Automatic annotation (TrEMBL):
Coiled coil: none annotated. One of its GO terms (molecular function) is methyltransferase activity. It comes from Sorangium cellulosum So0157-2. Keywords: Methyltransferase, Transferase. InterPro entries: Methyltransf_25 (IPR041698), SAM-dependent_MTases_sf (IPR029063). The keyword Transferase applies. It comes from the Bacteria. The keyword Transferase applies. This is Methyltransferase domain-containing protein. CDD domains: AdoMet_MTases. Residues 41-136 form the Methyltransferase domain. GO terms for biological process: methylation. Transmembrane segments: none annotated.
């Protein structure tokens, strides 16, 4: 099956270097994850492997990146050949992630909103739940349901432009345009509310869901100034949640 990502894997490689990704997304995600030392980690929808590699560099014992797009996986594997870290890449649907486990941690960075229906979102969450060891954690980052949706230019300073087609309902078609210094790519995805995510996570077996606002890395403030980020933090484009699989019964 081909994917929209097959055609722009190379351009995507430049988008992952945007300041907002480095200083907000990766920083917030790694803060939420805490110490990954010696943990087995699965990064679902790994794309070009940027998060998978960060986790391995931070000391993960096993780092596996899973994605459906051959183009994205080729780019990820190419980086692994150029600069080996021991990351494994697997072509598979998130809904079928269970067989790869057990993992101590699962991450999903801008992946879950690709689900186009509540059933598909629940199937993804179920695959993640099955891939986790008892007591394992799942941390995800994705667009905030309260992002500045009526003001598409709001995030232009950060290289992002997002719009939702129609009402702000779960699974509404959404377009995200990412602009780098020399390229632009538009991703078709879907809008999801907090309650839409929570319903899918509960259907998959997760109980307690904790929401976290994104933060800016101190290096990002130093590099670009507090004023640059204050606009973003007033209405963050990103939002995170974390949840834990129930520990095994004694
Ligand atoms: C926006 S990209 C994010 C890539 C990476 N996580 C990052 O933050 O740079 C979304 C990725 O999710 C993958 N994806 C979407 N639905 C998937 C599914 N059901 N199973 C596996 N991968 C999926 C796409 O192929 C794409 O590489």
């Amino acid at each position: 099956m081909s994917s929209q990502y097959d055609s722009f894997a190379n351009t995507y490689g430049r988008a992952v270097a945007l300041d907002v990704r480095r200083y907000v997304d990766y920083f917030s995600l790694t803060r939420a994850l805490g110490d990954v030392g010696d943990k087995a980690v699965l990064d679902v929808g790994c794309g070009t492997g940027v998060i998978t590699r960060i986790l391995k560099q931070r000391g993960a014992r096993r780092g596996v990146g899973l994605d459906l797009s051959e183009g994205m996986l080729d780019a990820a594997r190419g980086e692994e050949v150029r600069s080996p870290l021991g990351v494994e890449y697997v072509r598979r649907d998130i809904a079928d992630a269970g067989a790869l486990g057990p993992f101590d941690l699962v991450t999903a960075c801008y992946v879950l909103p690709h689900a186009s229906s509540p059933d598909q979102l629940a199937a993804m969450c179920r695959g993640i739940h099955e891939a986790l060891a008892p007591g394992g954690r799942f941390v995800a980052i994705h667009p905030n349901d309260a992002f500045a949706v009526n003001d598409p230019a709001f995030y232009s300073a950060y290289g992002l432009r997002a719009s939702v087609d129609g009402r702000l309902d779960d699974a509404a078609p959404m377009k995200v345009t990412v602009t780098t210094v020399d390229a632009e790519l538009t991703i078709s995805t879907h809008y999801w509310t907090r309650s839409g995510y929570e319903a899918a996570l509960r259907r998959a077996g997760f109980r307690e869901i904790r929401w976290r606002s994104p933060e800016v890395a101190p290096e990002g403030i130093e590099a670009l100034g507090e004023a640059f980020w204050s606009n973003y933090l007033a209405r963050p484009y990103a939002m995170l949640f974390e949840c834990t699989k129930e520990p095994a019964q004694r």
